[in-house]
Amino acid sequence: MNDLLEIRRQIDNVDKEIVRLFEERMKLVLKVVEYKKLNNIDIFQSSREDEVIKNGIENLKDKRFQPYLEKYLNFIMKLSKELQSEVISSYEKNSIIVGFQGVSGSFSEQALFEYFGENTQTRAVEYFEDIFIDLKNNKIDYGILPIENSSTGAISEVYDLLNKYDFYITGEICLKVDQNLLGIPGATIEDIKEIYSHPQAFSQSSEFLKDHPNWKLIPYHNTAKSAEYVKNQNNKALAAIGSKRAAKIYGLDIIRANINFNSNNSTRFVVISKIMKEDNNNNKISIVFSIPHKVGCLYNVLRCFAENNLNLLKIESRPILNKPWEYFFYVDFEGNIKDEKVQNAIDAVKNNSLYLKILGNYKKHNDN
Fold first, then answer.
1. Does 305 participate in catalysis according to the annotation?
2. Are residues 349 and 234 in the same domain?
3. Where are the beta strands (DSSP E) in the chain?
4. Domain limits for position 207
5. Cα–Cα distance between 27 and 87 in angstroms, integer?
6. Residue 261: φ, ψ to 5°
7. Are residues 10 and 90 part of one domain?
8. 326: left (phi over 0), alpha (psi -120 to 50) or beta
9. Burial level of 185, CB count in 10 A (0-12/13-18/19+)?
10. Catalytic residue list contains 167
11. 150 forms bridges with which residues in the sheet?
């Protein structure tokens, strides 16, 4: 019994030293994240994690403990990443820049303000891919992009860009979208000959536009940009389809309100960043995978979710470039990346696919 007490006393002493070293390590982690933020260096680097484990194994004298050391070091690095995420969040509340496609008055800007707040610093870009490029070049901290509309479906270009770049979805927001016919002050519906707007806005307003077959529909980068163009042309024959907010910003009249055929028309926007934020409250996961072009292959992947009792929310396919009739499959499902059943499902999908990429784990938009 005395021997056991002595061993426990020695363990207590070792634990005290571990606590002291743990505190010292976490303070150094704070210095690292501060340096990386100031010098625009990526916060999380997998190569560094591999290096830490390799160094730890090299310093281990009793190799019997190697698998336990790897688990211990992985857990320590997990805690370090959580601390860094908290520090980053505190920075972001005060100084983040968020990129969006379009100009002031766009639905993307409106979604941005609803998600991040009205006082958020923004950066407007012309094309969707510009958001990814700016994020890569550290010109913005986040980007927000429309990915799906309840009336017209998926925005394919955004899906392709999510797969092309190594960024992560960290949040989403659904925005009710009402399209309106906008013209310069004094213009009437009888004056109109040309309509400018984004193709999605034309699609969402297709029933209204059918009643005016003589109008020329001219696609434009963005609904707000089209409103700006109509304002600058100062021509009663030109009109735009856009938001009430765009009408107010650019001093246009609302010639006809709510012309979209679906009164519940909504657009889902995703927020992207360089890092995947781990949070126990995250309840939605997005992945993309490809499979052999053979009978039963898609079934073999999809059953991985059912077998692990995971609810599928959406599946979308996109063609693989230079591989006719082969596809990337984008899947959204409920869960947290830390859950064992999620890990089991992802491992099973990986084993049944040619390619798998996790696009993000984030909190599902709540309509309430």
1. no
2. no
3. 97-101, 121-125, 142-149, 153-154, 168-176, 180-183, 194-197, 216-219, 238-242, 253-256, 266-273, 284-290, 312-319, 327-334, 355-362
4. 183-256
5. 12
6. -75, -20
7. yes
8. beta
9. exposed
10. no
11. none
Count of CB atoms situated within 10 Å of the CB of 3: 7
Measured distance CA(303)–CA(316) in Å, rounded: 16
- Rounded to 5 degrees, φ, ψ at 327 are -140, 150
**48 shares its domain with 122:** no
Catalytic residue among 152, 170, 223, 267: 267
Give the distance between the most distant pair of CA atoms in the chain: 100
Once rounded to an integer, what is the mean pLDDT over residues 1-27?
89
Helix (H, G, I), strand (E, B) or coil at 154: strand
Same domain, 117 and 35: no
Which tokens is 167 given? 């960024």
The CA distance from 30 to 356, in Å, is 33
The amino acid that residue 276 corresponds to is M
Q: Check residue 173 and give its pLDDT.
A: 96
Question: CA 14 → CA 8, 18, 331, distances in Å?
Answer: 10, 6, 47
Which residue among 49, 79, 94 closes a domain? 94
Q: What is the CATH number of the domain that holds 86?
A: 1.20.59.10
Q: Determine the 3-state secondary structure of 277 from DSSP.
A: coil
pLDDT tens digit string along 191-213? 999 999 999 899 999 999 999 99
* Cα separations in angstroms, 215 against 157, 306, 322: 27, 50, 38
Catalytic pick among 116, 128, 269, 329: 269
Specify the DSSP class assigned to residue 221: S
pLDDT-derived band at 335, boundaries 50, 70, 90: very high
CA distance 52 to 49: 5
Among candidate residues 236, 232, 253, the one with its CA nearest the CA of residue 194: 236
pLDDT digits (tens, 9 = 90+) for 242-297: 999 999 999 999 999 999 988 888 999 999 999 888 788 899 999 999 999 889 99
How far apart, in whole angstroms, are the C-alpha atoms of residue 202 and residue 174? Answer: 20
